[in-house]
Specification:
- The protein is of the alpha+beta class and 133 residues long.
- It is 32% helix and 23% strand.
- The longest helix is centred in the middle third of the chain and has 18 residues.
- 6% of the residues are buried.
């Protein structure tokens, strides 16, 4: 059952309860574009070929210098910066509103995520969201 807040339906938080997302830690974050549009580029021969929007997103990702803010604040700032610059250059671009996080608690979790990241481009053609252009 969905609770109401100020007489509006409220989606329960996907965040881990009893965890302060301002704490230092290792996080695996997944953010998506609106409607999972392929704005960032294409995978060719197992490697990403960045589009102009992908280059902007990559540049901002490389320049993130988190302070003591929460994960949500960092993601919101990143999304805002990428959106602002892509729109300023005349690109049509939008993010999905939420994001997924996973708190990395041990070496096994870290190794699984690292393997997923490294193998993801190679496995792209088998992904359920893959669309042949």
């Amino acid at each position: 059952m969905t609770d109401k807040f100020h007489n509006k339906y409220r989606i329960p938080s996907a965040r881990l309860q009893n965890w302060d997302y301002r704490w230092a830690g290792a996080y695996f974050i997944t953010i998506c574009t609106q409607n999972r549009e392929h704005y960032f580029g294409e995978i060719e021969n197992g490697e990403i070929q960045l589009s102009p929007i992908g280059a902007i997103a990559d540049e901002f990702m490389a320049s993130i210098s988190p302070k003591s803010d929460s994960v949500s604040t960092i993601i919101r700032s990143y999304k805002s910066a990428v959106t602002k610059h892509t729109h300023r250059l005349g690109f049509d671009f939008a993010w999905q509103t939420r994001f997924h996080d996973h708190i990395i608690r041990d070496n096994i979790s870290f190794e699984n995520i690292q393997t997923y990241i490294n193998e993801n481009p190679i496995k792209w053609v088998d992904d359920k969201f893959y669309k042949q252009e």
